[in-house]
Amino acid sequence: MLSTPDDTERPRADLAVVLLNAGILHRVGPFRWYVELSRRLSSMGFPVLRVDLAGKGDSERRPGLSRDESVDRDMEDIAGVLKREVSARRFVLVGLCSGADDAVRLMGKDDRIVGAALLDGYAPKTIAFYLHHYGPRALRLDVWGRKLNKLMRREGGAPDGDRVRYPDVEDPVNTPIRSFPTRAGFRRLLERLGNRNAKLLCIYTSGSHAYYNHQGQLRASMRLRGFRNHVRERYFPEARHTLPTRRHQREMAAEVSDWLAANFATPT
Predict the structure, then answer these.
(1) Three-class DSSP labels, 110-130
(2) Is the predicted pLDDT of residue 153 greater than 70, yes or no?
(3) Share of the chain above pLDDT 90, in %
(4) Crossing angle for the helix pair 246-263 and 33-43, nearest 10 degrees?
(5) Distance CA 142, CA 109 (A)
């Protein structure tokens, strides 16, 4: 679905925004957030494409291709459509969850992608992450009680039950939904983006608590010269991963639109 600016709006020079699927969701996005965001951005003068990648929503799978190969092929088709329809030659990607993973991977290999807004994308863990995670728990008796109970159950041979296992984001992870880079690979990506003056907006919510839990963690984990010149980092601990509330939808939309206006505001 392509949203174009009204005739009364001044379009941005040869630039279009692409909203990538969040997980397995349809192109409307979680709680129709992509619909609202695309309308907001098009009213600012940006052509916006909401797309179902192959195998999602209304799009058929691409037989014989890996997930990454299929997404690469999708991006080529997207670029061709936007060049034909709105004369776009540069692209900014927006993605939540697996959409963020796809966006950052595509950005690392395609110089036409000059920016990406990533919601609950990758972030390396730091010492401060573990302090924030375990510090408050160390003073709570109920936590120690549960740990002791779990230990006793294990020793007694009782089943541990179904536990949620989060991927170790320090190593490559390839699942049907998420695909994280390595820490070293992500650092190299940020260095390349800095060298070509590409821009990143990295937003984290409570949905990233397994690997991100405080403002500034991404900055501290990378320690890159000139970091603040091409990467903006924002943390919304009260927001849920799928943005079910209007308040948080508006906050995220404001972050994305303000970042776009600040970094890609050159009109034709």
Answers:
(1) CCCEEEEEEECCCCCCCHHHH
(2) no
(3) 47
(4) 40
(5) 48
In the chain, where the domains are located: 2-263
Q: For the residues of 240-265, what is the DSSP string, one character each? A: -TT--SHHHHHHHHHHHHHHHHHHS-
Query: Whose CA is closest to 184, among 127, 130, 122, 141?
Result: 122
> In the block, which residue shows the tokens 């937003």?
203
| Torsion angles phi and psi, residue 147, rounded to 5 | -60, -45
- DSSP H or E segment with residue 49: strand 48-50
Give 2-263's CATH code, choosing from 2.30.30.30, 3.40.50.1820, 3.40.50.1240, 3.50.50.60: 3.40.50.1820
| Encoded amino acid at 98, one letter | S
* Confidence tier at 7 by pLDDT (50, 70, 90): low
DSSP H helices in the chain: 33-43, 67-86, 98-109, 127-134, 141-155, 183-195, 217-222, 227-230, 246-263
Res 161 pLDDT > 70: no
CB atoms within 10 A of CB 140: 10
> Are 265 and 51 a contacting pair, CB within 8 Å?
no
Residue 19 has pLDDT above 80, yes or no: yes
